[in-house]
Amino acid sequence: MAVQTGLGEPRGPWFVSPDLDPDGRGGTDPAARERERLLGGWRGWVAGRDGIPGPAAASAAPVPAELVTAAEKTVPGVVSVLVGGAAGGSASGSGFAVDSEQHIITNDHIIARGRGGPVTVELPDGRRYAAEVVGREPDSDLAVLKVPSSANLTSLPLAKPGATRVGEPVLAVGSPLGLPGTVTAGIVSALDRQVRLGDNRHRAVQTDASINPGNSGGPLVNARGEVVGVNTAIATIDGNGSIGIGFAIPIEQVQQTADTIIGKGG
Fold first, then answer.
1. DSSP letters of 19-35?
2. Would you identify the CATH topology of the domain 1-53+61-266?
3. I want to staple 211 with a disulfide (CB 3.0 to 4.6 A). Which of 82, 156, 183, 246 is the partner?
């Protein structure tokens, strides 16, 4: 039995999609389609439960209007990232568009777990594109992808450096457990939190917005819909999933690293 020490080791919330073929593309077998159909019904139940209009939301507390607006602005720019290869490695996560050239920011650990396999990006409307890996920066756990201009993704605005405050409301947006367009709410619970991820130490934005496997690489946005960080890890006790403490790479680091990668890779 593992020895519990504090919050346990922060780790990337990996997710291996059951719908990935060995080549990293979506499965087409009847069982996979049936899983998707069942998940679709479950998504509707979750949406109603979490305050999005629906039968289960009739008695829910009102959602702050600014967070609803922020979610509406953010979801169109967030994608699912699917990585897989014949070598057996596969992983899923999230990402988001940052400019009109269709560059997408995600976590490097998602690409690494794919072991060099092809990278596929799934858009909010279900379209899929093979993505080019423009560049990777393992030390900061960031990578930049690029999809064709025909994807026409909505780019997300970035928050100003140093503008994030403890206590402000935030949304984590991504594809936890393969459920695209999922939005969870919380607050910034700490800034400049020192966390160790693998062999590297990072200064992170800490949040209590729910972050689960598949959220990696997705944006953490403020009530204005501006990206304040990239969701990258969760704290666990004995490795048993999210306990309500998540970490995001601060936007200052994200912008600096992305600008460097894009400048070198085009």
1. TB-TTSSBP-SHHHHHH
2. Thrombin, subunit H (2.40.10)
3. 246
